[in-house]
Amino acid sequence: MSLANKGQAERALEMGQQYLAAHNPIKALRLFNKSKNLYALDGINQWCKKAALAVRKQQQQQQQQSSSSSSSSRQSSSRARDTRRARTAPSVPTATQPTDPIVIEILSKKTGHYYNILGVTNSSTDKQIKKAYRKLALKLHPDRNTTPGAADAFKRIGEAYNTLSDAEKKAEFDRWGPPEEENQAEGQRRQSSGGFGRRGGRRYYEDEIDPNDIFNAFFGGGFPRGSVYRSSNGSGNQQQSNGNSNQVEPLNQLMRLLPLLLLFMFTFLQLPSSAPKAFALDQNTRFYKPVFTHARYIKPKIKYYVTKDFARNKYDMDQLETSVERSYLERLGNYCRQERQQQRYDAYHAQVNRDRQAQRRIKSRKNKYCTEYSARAEQIQNRRL
Questions:
Q1: How many other C-beta atoms lie within 10 A of the C-beta of residue 96?
Q2: E strand or H helix at 355
Q3: What is the pTM of this model?
Q4: Can you point out the beta strands (E) in the chain?
Q5: Confidence category of residue 212, pLDDT binned at 50, 70, 90
Q6: Got the DSSP string for 275-337?
């Protein structure tokens, strides 16, 4: 096994973990076996055993369901045909099962917990809230993310930003909390006085504002004047004075085009640069010479790989090592999300099985990638200050 295959093995392991979390153990087992054949990573055998156990468990559940629900010979024969087709067809995630880790993370959070959905706190500034929404919106917009569940996740972050970006709505939300946590007595009192949870005249969240309108307004330069409501047939109605409607119409048309222009601009900026790549975090046939960062402010040092004819005097080493640090931090962030996702998955199964000892063990388990990610991120933040 060559070290050049280590990067491919790690990617196969990451994809297998995502499929396993999305309840597709067959595809996960194939990827784990592929990773094992490419390079013997630490813990790959445990992942293979875990995926194989999940496959057996899934097959047993399918057999129990097919045997208990067959009421006639026609139904039993159709279920047998479906079972054979499912075994011979390539195993891919169903349309209703999210596969994107970001989508899974957003949908796993409670509806109405707007701070948690955006990943901010009630002490976060308006700038931090806007930054969190911008980052998620660019990844979840339906034009760029067509994976299952992405539209629902995009709608959730739109509801959260619509509430937290308005000072009055944010004050009401901080006062009363998420809608599902309001008790009946408080709800009845606010219904008579016209508060946050009023049924007949509430002004935001759920289906009153289209998340695409929020996205367009955010990237187009601000919300349109007046409140935007969504009717039952899906059409929008802006409450504006009739005297200014004709004057604002050309401006509105221009503002509708700006989000698309900005989206294309962001996509263009994220395209690979024409400049040749100077390093790689994984060893391969081109970048196989190992080196370490020399900058004193990068602690501990980061190992990366360069070409055979690499010469330090040809590059701006400060800029190069900063790029190495940024790429390494991004990788740690991805690993950290996978660790937390696996921890939530294990905690859920321990709770279902009522294994309190396993729950305590999972809760106290330390995530090494998250720990290193936090330490390096704090180091970078202190360096900028």
A1: 7
A2: none
A3: 0.32
A4: 228-230, 236-238, 289-292, 303-306
A5: low
A6: SPP--BSS--SSS-EEEE---TTSSS--EEEE-TT--GGGS-HHHHHHHHHHHHHHHHHHHHH
Rounded Cα distance between 276 and 330, Å, is: 20
The enclosing H or E element of 206 equals none
Write b or e for each residue in 20-29: b if 16 or more Cβ atoms lie within 10 A of its Cβ, otherwise e. bbbebbbbbb
Distance, CA of 376 to CA of 373 (rounded, Å): 5
Number of Cβ within a 10 Å radius of residue 180: 10
Q: How far, in Å, CA of 286 to CA of 289, rounded?
A: 9
More confident residue, 214 or 122: 122
List the single range of 73-77, 149-153, 319-323 with lowest mean pLDDT.
73-77
CA-CA distance, 306 to 356, in Å (whole number)?
A: 49
- Taking residues 104-122, report their average pLDDT: 87
Under CATH, what is the fold of the domain 101-239+248-269?
Answer: Helix Hairpins (1.10.287)
> Hey, CA dihedral for 318, 323, 329, 335, is it positive or negative?
negative
Residue 234 CB neighbour total at 10 angstroms: 8
Q: What is the DSSP letter of 20?
A: H
| DSSP sequence for 91-121 | ----TTS--SHHHHHHHTSPTT-HHHHHT--
β-strand 303-306 against 289-292: which pairing, if any?
antiparallel
CA 208 – CA 230 distance, rounded (Å): 5
Four-residue CA torsion sign, 340, 124, 145, 268: negative
**Can you read off the two tokens belonging to residue 204?**
């935001």
Residue 70 has pLDDT above 70, yes or no: no
**What are the CA-CA distances from residue 361 to residues 130, 282, 356, 368 (Å)?**
37, 33, 9, 15
- 145-170 pLDDT, tens per residue? 888 888 888 889 988 888 898 888 88
Paired tokens of 172: 């009401």
Sorted by where each begins, the domain ranges of the chain are 3-88, 101-239+248-269, 289-384
